Amino acid sequence: MTERQSVTLSDVAAVAGVSVSTASRALNGTGRVSAETRERIEGAARRLEFRPNALAQSLALGRSRTVAILTDRATNTFSMPVVIGAAGYLGAQEQAALVCDARLNRRDMAERIGELRARRIDGVVVVGDGLQGLTRSVTTEFTVPVSYAFTLSDDDDDAMFIPDNAGAGRIAAEHLLGLGRTRIVHVTAAGDDIAVRQRADGLLRTLDAAGTGLTGEVLYGTWRESWGREAAQRVVDEAWDVDAVFCGNDHIARGVESALVAAGRRVPDDVALIGVDNWEGLILDQSTQHLTTIDVGLAAMGEAAAAHVLAGEERPGVHYQPPTLIVGDTSA
């Protein structure tokens, strides 16, 4: 057989010494085939580098081998890694990903859902853009598994994959306490955001358990760098006794750092600094890490939601993605 010839199922069957129908059942995972025969067929397929015809396989199994990724802001800075994580996982499992941005058809979501059903998709991953509000559940509008990533559904029985924001606050506190920092300030965004409340709660609980309270009140503002500068300037002007700052995100942390340095405070010698989001590594793809930060696992969230759909498991409720501490110059 020359390299230009395509390997067929008949070729695999011939090498394995079985019928074409037996080879088909073994490779598709359908019907009864002994373990020994299945191993022989799979070995022949690997040696011949056999690639099954996706269309024929779909028809045989009654499945499209396609999962829809439904989002209303696919290009959002923080939604995109979730979409990429889900699509990457599906591709590794030889499943196609059909990304549908509802923003393109916001006024007629019913039509979009109808289009997806007509494609005989095998599952749906709904990707949100954070925890500022609830996403309307579409689970009952499909007969296939549906999961939600980086958002909370308004139906508690849905499977939702979100960041462990309380864990992020806990990790920040543990890192700073481990450095011997005990006079910690928390600068974050407005308190009506679920992520804000959970991160602050994780921080405060860990500090309380260690017998160390927060220095001053929690400083609430916006997610912007300008708010970080404003908050840090207040700390300087009011002469707060502080040796560390945990910021709600990396933008705030950059603002805090610039204001502290301008006031003559050394980072991290005088004040250690931690943010959240891993903006440098995840978004900017920088090879060096200046800001110590906490990666909430956006891509892994998408992977977990896609895996849930493919497994067809019944695991309703909220599933938290563990965060990861990324140590940089600002606390080293």
Could you walk me through the main structural features you see in this protein, from its secondary elements to its overall organization?
With 332 residues, the chain is α/β, with parallel strands linked by helices. It folds into 3 domains: 9-61, lambda repressor-like DNA-binding domains (434 Repressor (Amino-terminal Domain), Orthogonal Bundle), CATH 1.10.260.40; 66-163 and 298-321, Rossmann fold; 165-295, Response regulator (Rossmann fold). 42% of the residues lie in helices and 17% in strands. It is built from 12 helices and 14 strands. It has helices at residues 9-16, 20-28, 35-48, 54-61, 79-92, 109-118, 165-178, 194-209, 225-237, 250-262, 279-283, 298-311; strands at 66-71, 96-101, 123-127, 134-135, 146-149, 152-153, 159-163, 184-189, 219-221, 244-247, 272-274, 293-295, 317-321, 324-326. The strands form 4 sheets. Strands 2-1-3-5-7-13 form a 6-stranded parallel sheet, covered by helices on one side. Strands 9-8-10-11 form a 4-stranded parallel sheet, with helices on both faces. It has a two-stranded parallel ribbon with strand order 4-6. The chain is elongated.
